[in-house]
Structure formats: C-alpha cells, structure tokens
Specification:
heterodimer; A: mainly beta; six-stranded mixed beta sheet; five-stranded antiparallel beta sheet; globular; B: mainly beta; four-stranded antiparallel beta sheet; 0% helix
C-alpha cells in the first residue's frame, strides 16, 4: 500500500525564518510527487516532481526529490505571514495518496 | 491553466435527504476524477476514483451505495450523498487529471470544495 509521511506535523516560526518541510514515501509504482498549499479551501498546486535531484523553484519556495532515499523536501525562505497554511505532499503511484500535512504558522 | 469548477461551494441539508455535488473540468477533458473528503485539521482522504464511462472505484470503508459517483462525460463528474446524516458533514473536494487509467503524468487540479452540513 502506498504511504506518505510528512514531518513535522506542525511548525511555528517568525517572519524571515527559513523552513524545511519533509515528505517520505513508500510506493509500488512511482509516477510523481506533488506539493500543495492549502489555506481555507481547496489545495493549490505548488510543484510536481518526477526526477531525482532536480530542484524546482518558484520565488521563495523550492523543492527537490530523492528517489533513492524516497523523500522530498519543500523549502521556504524568508517566510511571510501569508505562508501560513497546511502544506500537503501527495504521491501519484497506483493512486493519489496524501500525507497528513504540515501546519505552518508564520508569526509577525 | 487547467480549471476545475465545483458546485455548490456550501450546502446545508436535512437528515435523510440527498445532496448532489458537481465537478466540471472547464478547459480540458478529465479522463479521471477523484473525490476526497476532509475533516477539520486532517488531510485529504480519497473516497473514490472515477474514470469516464466506467464504474467508480471506491476506497475501503467508503459505502458505494451512500456516495454515488457518476462520470458520464469527460468534463463532468457528480457525487451524490444519499440519505445524508450529520456524520456526513464534511468538506468534499474533487480533483481531475488529464491522464488516462493509471498514467497520471499531468498532475491534478482541484475544485474549490463543497462544505456540506447535515442538520
């Protein structure tokens, strides 16, 4: 059975800090790993990772995948209060499976 | 980019009634659609996967007779919660992919979600 484990489950930081969110997985048939940001409603897409070692960047956010060690990280630099959200890691294998999410709170 | 429209965004219904939630892909053909349920402060739980023109595949523990899924066209999937009870109150989200069968290369686009409250 495909499995996704995210850590930490909760994180509180101050504006300007850099955070690293972790996602480890077990999968039978890997297709891609996806990161989403969820505020009040539906998740919004951040990254889709399919290849190991290639960093994807979007502004202050970046993510990388290690298919050998079966994990991915999401980095956020110079955090802002608007980054406060739940960050979900999703695994596209035999089906789409999500981790529990990391609740990030950025305080002023 | 790809857009998925989900309707209604919020619904309140009485116990025992049925509620239909629609999910439409606006600018692409969604061969596969997924329905999720989310409880407060919890992750998305996959309920079922539907492929256009065939029966939905339900996850273990999801009652197929209670949560009816219809994917009659490449742009529309519906979830009907039948004989709703207060414990069915939740946030329901659909997502769609352009991929066919198990080949899901395109990522997923989510609808805006439906907050269902059963009173």
């Amino acid at each position: 059975e495909d499995k996704v484990v995210q850590s930490p489950l909760s994180l509180v930081v101050h504006e300007g800090d850099t955070v690293t969110l972790n996602c480890s997985y077990e999968v039978t048939n890997f297709r891609s790993l996806l990161w989403y940001k969820q505020e009040k409603k539906a998740p919004t897409f951040l990254f889709m990772l399919t290849s190991s070692g290639i960093e994807k960047k979007s502004g202050r956010l970046s993510s990388i995948l290690d298919k050998k060690e079966l994990f991915s990280i999401l980095n956020i630099t110079a955090t802002q209060t608007g980054d406060s959200a739940v960050y979900l890691c999703g695994l596209s294998g035999s089906r789409l499976t999500f981790g529990e999410g990391t609740q990030l709170t950025v305080n002023p | 980019g790809a857009v998925v429209s989900q309707h209604p965004s919020r619904v309140i219904c009485k116990s025992g009634t049925s509620v239909k939630i629609e999910c439409r892909s606006l600018d692409f053909q969604a061969t596969t659609m997924f329905w999720y349920r989310q409880f407060p402060k919890q992750s998305l739980m996959l309920m079922a996967t539907s492929n256009e023109g065939s029966k939905a595949t339900y996850e273990q523990g999801v009652e197929k007779d209670k949560f009816l899924i219809n994917h009659a066209s490449l742009t529309l999937s519906t979830l009907t919660v039948t004989s709703a009870h207060p414990e069915d109150s939740s946030f329901y989200i659909c997502s769609a992919s352009q991929g066919t069968g198990g080949v899901l290369h395109y990522g997923y686009t989510f609808g805006s979600g439906t907050r269902l409250t059963v009173v």
